[in-house]
């Protein structure tokens, strides 16, 4: 069987082709799946898509009309999928429930270190043979407070690194993680975490309850010299409120690997185009802000696991098995607790 893969990155393609070799043919496209590209899938029973695919009801209807019956999303998050519409159309939806938590946790720390020690600015200067230290002073993380918002597998990995730095640990989640508690983490309410933390890192899924979790009041509760890192989902942060906070001269630094309106921008070369997103354009003007293009997961280890799980989801579908990664079962039934986030 030939399977169509949308949104395949150049470094991801060899891993996909190697994993599917001997099992199925796979046709890789670098274009993202959306309303304009959905007709390409006509005739393909199984397709796979990346995290920035736009799988709203209209797109799903187009796919179903073209003969698609199964969509294997190559990501953990699924806020981009209208699961109710998929169920109504009888589509099977799979995802990657988990992959290397260290890929994201380590990258989140990379962002924190980069904004704290002004590494990007320093690198730009030295390329011009400007070796001054003006404006490059950082500070030790040891002895300061790390606030971890979400202490699942990735949050726990982030916490272990923070513990290695010798930081005081605060956590917020719907349930305590005993492994984090053993490291000395104190679980507190979100307001206290934001008020006391020198570094706040976000590791919660995007749900209706977490949409704009870090909004204007939350940002106001943070220390003026705190660092904010988001390597989870862009919708966790109210970007307009963040811009206003930065314009007021608050926050020591911000590291963002995700952005709430990243679809259609991230993973593409927009260097020769006019950017019409005024909020993102303004955000990029701040010298203490580092934005990367949703690459925290992008390691050989994590992508390899994502690809292997995607193949397993395809094989489960073809064998009629209800695998653990199902969001919508073959008979059009939503699996427990699978609901779209904030209508997105």
From TrEMBL:
Domain D-isomer specific 2-hydroxyacid dehydrogenase NAD-binding: residue ranges: 110-296
Domain D-isomer specific 2-hydroxyacid dehydrogenase catalytic intervals: 8-325
Family matches, as SUPFAM superfamilies: Formate/glycerate dehydrogenase catalytic domain-like (SSF52283), NAD(P)-binding Rossmann-fold domains (SSF51735)
Keyword line: NAD, Oxidoreductase
InterPro entries: D-isomer_2_OHA_DH_cat_dom, D-isomer_DH_CS, D-isomer_DH_CS1, D-isomer_DH_NAD-bd, D-LDH-like, NAD(P)-bd_dom_sf
Family: Belongs to the D-isomer specific 2-hydroxyacid dehydrogenase family.
Classification via PANTHER family: 2-HYDROXYACID DEHYDROGENASE HOMOLOG 1-RELATED
Name of the protein in question: 2-hydroxyacid dehydrogenase
